[in-house]
Amino acid sequence: MRNYALETKSRIEFIRGVLKSAGADGIVYGNSGGKDSALVGILCKMACENTVGLIMPCGSKRNYGEDKHDAEIIAEQFHIATRVIDLTEVKNTLIKTMDGLTELTDAALANISPRLRMTALYAVAASENRLVAGTGNKSEKYMGYFTKWGDGAFDFNPIADLTVTEIYEFLQYLGVPDAIIRKAPSAGLFEGQTDESEMGITYRSIDEFLLTGTVNEYDRTIIEKYHRASEHKRRMPLIYGG
């Protein structure tokens, strides 16, 4: 297990260094009510008093209920400024506007929400001289389980090297409520969605592979399939070199 007292100190120093080099006055991040955003919000607030979390429901009933409630719990416990922006009408308007232009697939529809959220985050950041903090972890990155130009976009990420298992350990060290730690990871992209059911594998198996290199052959096949298919998400766009 990592030394999370030392991890906290070093990550606070990292965040402060990023802010100083950018000449930024503060931080903004998406407070989804999940484990990753909770850890990012706590670390950012420790490093910078001028940290604000945006709660951004976008159509899913879970966004308005459990997620919003948990986001507010974290914000209150760690004294993090919070703003709420409902993006549901914006999403519906965009979908309606595209009617007749193309037939939107389920994947395209699901990815609209995280991209709208990132638009909102960068609008606030640009208006208030803030940096956007990313909330993705190592397990999600390896699997490509994030939206390109959505939650995969950010100015800095203080937890990108941590697996989901380590995120849980870190949150326990910081005293985050068990209800948030026990909650099934979900991007809240559609009703009933959970990360593990959608991928067909548990984070425990993914983390075992990342931390030890060992995993059963069935899970290894799933991991390698996701990793190969999502390679384009982890690299800069291809450009012609001339």
Q: Can you give a write-up of this model?
A:
The protein has helices at 4-22, 35-47, 61-64, 66-77, 88-97, 106-128, 138-143, 164-174, 178-182, 195-199, 203-212, 217-229, and strands at 26-30, 51-55, 81-84, 130-132. The protein is of the alpha/beta class. It has one domain (4-231): 3-Layer(aba) Sandwich (Rossmann fold), CATH 3.40.50.620. The protein is globular.
* CATH-assigned homologous superfamily: HUPs
- Tell me the Rg in angstroms: 18 Å
Biggest pleated-sheet summary: 4 strands, parallel
Overall SS class: alpha/beta
Mean pLDDT: 93
Q: How are helices and strands ordered from N to C?
A: HEHEHHEHHEHHHHHH
Q: What top-tier CATH class fits best?
A: Alpha Beta
How many separate helices?
12
Shape, please?
globular
CATH second-level architecture? 3-Layer(aba) Sandwich
Enumerate the spans where pLDDT stays under 50 for 5 or more consecutive residues: none
Identify the strand order in the major beta sheet: 3-2-1-4
